[in-house]
Hints:
Blueprint: H1 3-10, H2 12-27, H3 34-46, H4 51-68, H5 76-88, E1 101-106, H6 113-126, E2 131-135, H7 143-154, E3 157-159, H8 167-181, E4 185-189, H9 197-214, E5 220-227, H10 232-245, E6 249-253, H11 263-271, E7 275-279, E8 287-289, H12 292-299
Parallel strand pairs: 1-4, 1-5, 2-3, 2-4, 5-6, 6-7
Antiparallel strand pairs: 7-8
Amino acid sequence: MGFFQKIKEGLTKTRDSMVKNFEGMLNSFTKIDEELFEELEEILIMSDVGVATASKICTQLREKVKETGTTNPSAVKDLLKGIITEMMSGGEELNISTKPSVILVIGVNGVGKTTTIGKMSADLKRRGKKVLLGAADTFRAAAIDQLGVWAERSGAEMVKHAEGADPAAVVYDAITAGKARGVDVIICDTAGRLHNKKNLMDELSKISRVIEREAPNCDKEVLLVLDATTGQNAVNQAKQFQTAAGLTGIVLTKLDGTARGGVVIAIKEELGIPIKYIGVGEQIDDLQPFNAAGFVEALFDGNEPLRDEPETEENA
């Protein structure tokens, strides 16, 4: 199953909520007027697009309607798709051109962080990358064992210490091993919670310093895993971690389980952080590299699937 079909199925709840309401609203109008824009803005806000982003979308839509001379409400859908696609585009590709490259994965407990790492590893392996996992979430019971299961399933190597060990030491050993073994990508798990927020952020800063010292010329991604079902709370989490950890991308999980998928738009627009992956199911291949045009087409239930990019080294 290709990107379009997986995302289309995974966005069913959001589409049924946001897009069907939007299309029903358009069908009730015979002309484009201010009332139409106000109702659209309300629908977007109810879908967790966020007040600021919903307002910006409607402002741009007003400009597009005026610019194109559009008078038929049915034509608004294509204009809206174009605005959202442009808003969400840019920076989706992982920056992993060096050997090794390092991906630091962070996020609070319960968002599916360790599972996401396993699925990301599987995706990179399918692209022909040699992957090593660093089990630096040493504080959560069974986190190391859980990551070990995913390493086995995805065919990745793994570096681990005992439970309660220094996470930064695990990252150090993972980078050392990755260099020695000639791996392409080192993915490091991290703790989702310590006994207070300051300690968690301090630990992430310490890990970041180790990566900068031991892999100074390597590409580095800092990816925050967020649970889409939390809606606008996901945006607030991203703001906190962005301040502490300097995020380069977002992985949004559990999109298939929520009608609040509009939060994807809010995260990209409000925070300027690109979406790298979205999770739309439980299977190992249900974590999909993000594609803005494909996402919007699937969200609005377009009938023309976009061509999936071949999984080659050039696209990796």
